């Protein structure tokens, strides 16, 4: 009997299920209710939420009953969702869109109300329904489905889903972003819905590693171009920082603004391994649609990326753009890309440390060298490209700490070619471009101590470049020195030589001890380099003015009694070179005289030396009356008569003995030494200015004084050369013989000991170049032998013997007293 009852129960259940199936097929909204008693409760509850007419909307009281039933029986959620999906699918097919909207609204309310572990089963039905609405051609349903998906995206699920995929939604929402509907308002609504959908996909996927990887190229190639397509339709581009962004979640009613917010969110959620997945489609989009020129939109887009990206990853954006600079594009496009780079590179500087800094700098320099190697002088945009790279270099360095700026400058200097003898035109151009880069970085550096601004290796490299082959390159190097030397803003006032410093308003401070140590150690090399730079035949007025500015800045920055003698010694040497250097033109000689006097007038201005100021003022007045061409300003050409040549006006020159007396009168120990021979002896080779004087120790920048009795060469050993008693020499007299017989006095012994100690200290501590210069012979052996042989073969022009001498042979009187005879 129990078996028969069980069998009867199964038969009745099957019959009820059959009737239920039939009721699903035959019954719908407005059904007579004849089969309602046989339907499951959840289906009756679902049917009851639909009104007789769709215009009446969702039946709220019945919706509350359905919600309560779902919360009390969560295992029924999947069946409820499936049933709602079937009803909505049937209504879509029958174009009863009012009931479809009601079904979607019910889905949304159930989704928001029900938070349980079984929500995943309901979500599958929900997403199927959203997809069904998106596949329709009605814009209203597409927008409705998008809004539902966005609400779903904002819900944090308790359990992850391993099998859920969003590739359809990415494709559909991206297609909606490119809508070309004929009606403008509808088109904007569809695009806005597409952007909102993409934003929902991003929020739903990037935070869950168990779902589909949204960072794959197949998805990023759809999402990123869709956002950029809408952003570029904006009438104007206003880039604000991420702190100023309107953060209303999907409530923007403007597609460009919403697309920008979505891009910010996408970039902000990207990790280090995913940021390049976003940048690649960005660069590709700009290439395909030719958006680099003009580059307003490109600058706007990359600024958004730099504002939104995590700070520690910002340098990867710069690296990606650097690698893309030369990617199959013309010069104008490269220049536009470089301009974009210069606008964003500053954002990466603050968080770049260590190798990433030098890597970015190296990439910039590599692109500069590649630009020079292309040898594209005919393309005017190539210079724009190079200038943009240099600006990018300067912007990047401007946001780095000072110690890194010095490292960058040393790195740039190491890349500069220095091949004077066999340098090509490309080498000179590269040299000039890299020096411009160095100048750009130097302008961002704030010098505190000269020893920190000029490390030994960096200073040596700069001084080697001071004798570059091209005049423009040398002028550029002097501008770099001006930038690093000028700590008080005096460089603009000292841009051109002048003798009137009272109106310039120079800021002068006492030289610090570290700077004195620096100039004591490196002053010889610096002054020698600048002196040699003034002796080049290819110098222009710009070169001479630039070197004057450098020397004037050194005088102002190192103003002290310890350095005044070295500066005056250099001034005397410059004046002497203007008189004796045979390779200089008349214009260059006049310019050097003007520079020497301008520097001489600057020395008593920065130091309180009244006697020296009066002496220089007298020379200035005398030159204004008789030789204004020996005063500033410098001219390119001087039309002078022979009587106005500089070597014909010795009484208007700066006198070394007068300078010494002025210094002593003001209480400064004078250590000036005679310069090279005055007026007119043609030099066999150019001596360094330090060979003219004698050093009084390591703090002096002149040559070593050998003393009155220790000349390295002897004039008596050379025929035809008469030895004159110098200022420190002693004439052979009875008193001198007595002193020689009695031995040196105590003072002489102390002086000899001092000179010996000075000589020993110099050879221990002086630079090698200095030692090489002071130990070179004063003449070449070959030249001296020719001079000896010429003196032996000289014969008087008159053939007849004078004073009983045979014809053709000079008499002893003519041989030993030639000044008494007329030839």
Automatic annotation (TrEMBL):
Residue segments, region Disordered: 701-753
Residues making up the signal peptide according to the UniProt record: 1-27
Keyword hit for Transcription: no
Residue spans of biased composition, Polar residues class: 707-720
GO cellular component: plasma membrane
Gene3D superfamilies, A to Z: Leucine-rich Repeat Variant
Keywords annotated in UniProt: Signal
InterPro entries: ARM-like (IPR011989), ARM-type_fold (IPR016024), EFR3-like_ARM (IPR049152), EFR3_Homologs (IPR051851)
Swiss-Prot/TrEMBL GO biological process terms: protein localization to plasma membrane
Domain of life: Eukaryota
Family the UniProt entry places it in: Belongs to the EFR3 family.
PANTHER family cross-referenced by the UniProt entry: PROTEIN EFR3 HOMOLOG CMP44E
Name of the featured protein: Protein EFR3 homolog cmp44E
Provenance organism: Euphydryas editha (Edith's checkerspot)
Upper taxonomic lineage: Eukaryota, Metazoa, Ecdysozoa, Arthropoda, Hexapoda
